[in-house]
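Following up on my earlier thread - several people asked me to post the actual chain instead of describing it. Fair enough. Here it is, all 483 residues.
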Amino acid sequence: MVNVTYDSSGDLISSTGTVFNEGDIAWTLASTALVWIMIPGVGFFYSGLLRRKNALNMIYLSMMTIGVVSFQWFFWGYSLAFSETASPYIGNLKYFALQNVLDQPSIGSARVPAIVFCVFQLMFAAITPMIAIGAVAERSRLGPLVAFVFAWSTLVYDPIACWTWNTQGWSYVLGGLDFAGGTPVHISSGTAALAISLYLGKRRGYGTERLAYKPHNTTYVILGTVFLWFGWFGFNGGSALSANLRATEACIVTNLAASVGGLTWMFWDYRLERKWSVVGFCSGAISGLVAITPGSGFVGAPAAVLFGFMAGTVCNFATQLKFIFKFDDTLDIFASHAIGGIVGNILTGLFAQSSIAGADGITVIPGGWLDHNYRQLGIQLADSVSGLSYSFVMTTIILWIMHYIPGLRLRCDEETEILGVDDAEMGEFAYDYVGIETELVPRSEYNIGASSGSREPQHTAATTSQISEEKVISGEESVSRVQ
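Reply from S.P.:
Thanks for posting it. Predicted structure:
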């Protein structure tokens, strides 16, 4: 039983004698809830961009990730990331199973108890692998992803979070500035998505018009963006761990960068299509949110405009990388999150101000180039390259280890791709009707269509019998869906 008392102003006095302001606790807990809603927001955003036969599993994966990471964080994740006796790279098991994590001052801030900081940071740990596993879209088995999320959180997210935010971490000690997760969240997840895309390979019909589909549900894309934008106020504003002016400044620049990023991306798309794309706006808004994340507690509103413009521009053009290097990043996660995170880290090194960081009355930093601290850019680059390299290599290692463990291989078979992951892996659907007639084309005809340059594969009278012979579709239920 913890003995707590209250002083005359109503502040909480813990058993250790530390005084905690209940307003700070309330804001941090409210921010925890805001970040939680972002996780299904990612699921809805991804779902809307896919074909309807794969709409439900992305939303499911967002909920699965919350469950797996919540257990992992309790089991040893929090201890590996935030134990005070950590090495420069990763923590130890001091807080295994959340032992003795309660009313002592947190490693993040003496203004909130460790248990409050723990649950707040849990949400960051949960959303990061969800961003990454969007790369499995339309071509992965779902069962092995449970093991992947647990392993990835342990071996990739926790070490990067430790070296970025733990007071013992090498980047923290070096002076790296990352307010809310440019490297631990966005660079790590975006780079992991690239590694996953390369491991899984291309989807059936890649390079043909068969995959030149539009998002099946633009409303889901908007809904996901709303959840993300809404929750990002807690993501960045809550990272102040206090209800103060610095948190307010973080909220201001977060909203501004998202707005400018959305407009910028939409205008770049308009020059090509002469259409006002809401999907483009939503993509740009998220890229702006990604970029402002590391700098949200360090930069002012004028800089936030540049963050949004640069993110909307660079991330938009970065979506072409998958065509140049010929990898199937279905949802452009690498372009939006890894590239956006790097843009944010670099701009933070240029525009961080000691006056903004000191708005909480506590934080003292030398600032960035605006404050004539020119070495900061080098530190930001070192942190970005380290996070990108480590995430890519470790993710690839995890994937290939799982590849050779029976039952843990991620890549699904061709039948699952044709039916859709929802039908094959879940037996549940986002909609009553899921049409897959256009998918019922033998591989040989995809090759004919792709090689001849025709817009559609050549259909023949023998198509149905060939599909039956190849056992692409089996079972009465699946056949009835086609009919």
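The chain is about 60% helix and 0% strand. That should answer part of your original question.
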